[in-house]
């Protein structure tokens, strides 16, 4: 069981994109976890697979450092967010209770698998939409639905959103930072541009 009072949990983060319109409904702060054991063939984002320490941040540090005006909610992707359940919990709780933001989580695990784990029941209380399942390139999503492949399922865990909210304006998005770095994210071909510090990864 996750300690509901825990705080200051350090999370191994791959990268953060402060403002994205292609990772769920509306403008979103996107947080990419570091570490994934799923090994989906053709994963666009192999640099997030390693469990080596990348950016060790608390939930408080993430929101203090990256939350900008006009954000509707957060999207947590990876890597595999559920590999760090305590950290995921802290981020979701902070988003909901601290900032009134909506929450979307992409996972390579199935909802059925996660629902059978005690830890996840606490997590689900703070998730508006869960998109589950491993990426399958043979079932690449051709529409503008915000998922990598059509085998992945949307679970609306409350009435905040419907499937129409997950029709995104485009498949790929570029983020230009003040330091000159460029990050690319979305549900098409994903890669990091040389020199990019922010994230560009994306598909669960
Ligand atoms: S697609 Fe997602 S779940 Fe699959 S290996 Fe890549 S990061 Fe992991």
Structure description:
The protein is α/β, with parallel strands linked by helices. The protein has one domain: Aldolase class I (TIM Barrel, Alpha-Beta Barrel). The protein is built from 4 helices and 9 strands; from the N terminus they run βββαβαβααββββ. The protein has helices spanning 59-66, 85-99, 111-115, 118-124; strands spanning 11-20, 28-33, 55-57, 73-77, 102-106, 129-132, 153-156, 172-176, 182-186. Helix 2 packs parallel to helix 4. It starts with 10 loop residues before the first strand and ends in an 18-residue tail after the last strand. The relative contact order is 0.20. Mean pLDDT is 88; it is low at 1-6 and 190-204. Residues 36, 38-40, 43, 45, 48, 78-80, 108, 134-135, 203-204 line the site of iron/sulfur cluster.
């Amino acid at each position: 069981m996750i300690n509901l009072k825990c705080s200051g949990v350090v999370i191994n983060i791959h990268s953060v994109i402060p403002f994205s319109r292609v990772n769920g409904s509306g403008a979103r702060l996107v947080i990419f976890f570091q570490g994934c054991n799923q090994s989906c063939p053709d994963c666009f984002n192999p640099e997030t697979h390693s469990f080596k320490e990348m950016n060790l941040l608390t939930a408080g540090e993430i929101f203090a450092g990256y939350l900008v005006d006009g954000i509707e909610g957060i999207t947590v992707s990876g890597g595999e967010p559920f590999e760090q359940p305590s950290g995921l919990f802290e981020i979701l709780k902070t988003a909901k209770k601290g900032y009134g933001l909506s929450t979307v989580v992409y996972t390579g695990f199935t909802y059925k698998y996660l629902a059978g784990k005690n830890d996840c029941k606490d997590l689900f209380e703070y998730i508006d939409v869960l998109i589950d399942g491993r990426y399958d390139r043979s079932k690449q999503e051709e529409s503008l639905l915000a998922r990598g492949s059509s085998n992945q399922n949307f679970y609306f865990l409350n009435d905040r959103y419907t499937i129409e909210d997950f029709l995104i304006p485009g498949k790929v998005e570029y983020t230009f930072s003040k330091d000159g770095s460029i990050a690319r994210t979305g549900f098409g071909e994903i890669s990091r541009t040389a020199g990019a510090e922010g994230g560009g990864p994306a598909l669960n």
